[in-house]
Automatic annotation (TrEMBL):
The ChsH2 rubredoxin-like zinc ribbon domain, residue ranges: 20-56
Regions crossing the membrane: none
Cross-referenced InterPro entries: ChsH2_C, ChsH2_Znr, NA-bd_OB-fold, Thioester_dehydratase-like
Domain annotation ChsH2 C-terminal OB-fold: ranges: 57-122
Pfam families with a match to the protein in the record: OB_ChsH2_C, zf-ChsH2
Domain of life from the UniProt record: Bacteria
Name the UniProt record assigns to this protein: Zn-ribbon domain-containing OB-fold protein
C-alpha cells in the first residue's frame, strides 16, 4: 500500500461513500431497491429499474463473469506505463449489474468473455481500496 497514489482516484461523495467504505473492509456492497428487489451499479439516488428512491446497501457475493473486455497494450498516460498490458473489463455480477473494472492476471491472453471471476481488493492508499477481479481459474 502506498501513501501516494499517482493514478486517477474516484470522487467519493455521500451517495458513493457506503460503497467505498465497504471496499476498504474488503466487502463488495451494491445498492438494491426495496420496491422491486433489483440490484444496480453505479450508485445513484433512484432505482434505474422502477425509479423508486427506497434503496438499501447489501453485501454482494463478489462473483461474476466477464461480459466484455479489452487489453490495453499502450498506457492511458504515464502513470499507467508500468501496468501494460492490462485488462479493462465489464463484469456482469451474479446479482445482475455490470461493473467496469480491471482483471488482475499474469496472462492477459487467458481472459475470455464468459470467464468466471471473483472480486479482489487492491489497497492503494490507507483511505482507498479498489475492487478489481481475478479469474477463478487462476
Amino acid at each position: 500500500m502506498s501513501e501516494t497514489y499517482e493514478k486517477p482516484q474516484p470522487v467519493i461523495d455521500p451517495g458513493t461513500k457506503p460503497f467505498w467504505d465497504a471496499a476498504r473492509e474488503h466487502r463488495l456492497l451494491l445498492p438494491r431497491c426495496r420496491s422491486c428487489g433489483e440490484h444496480h451499479f453505479y450508485p445513484r439516488e433512484l432505482c434505474p429499474h422502477c425509479y423508486s428512491d427506497d434503496l438499501e446497501w447489501v453485501d454482494a457475493s463478489g462473483d461474476g463473469e466477464v461480459y466484455s473486455y479489452t487489453i490495453a497494450r499502450k498506457p492511458a498516460g504515464p502513470t499507467f506505463a508500468a501496468d501494460v498490458p492490462y485488462v479493462i473489463a465489464m463484469i456482469k455480477l451474479d446479482e445482475g449489474p455490470r461493473m467496469l473494472t480491471n482483471i488482475i492476471t499474469s496472462d492477459v491472453e487467458s481472459v475470455r468473455i464468459g470467464a468466471r471471476v471473483k472480486v479482489s481488493f487492491d489497497d492503494v492508499t490507507p483511505e482507498l481500496t479498489l475492487p478489481k477481479f481475478k479469474l477463478e481459474s487462476e
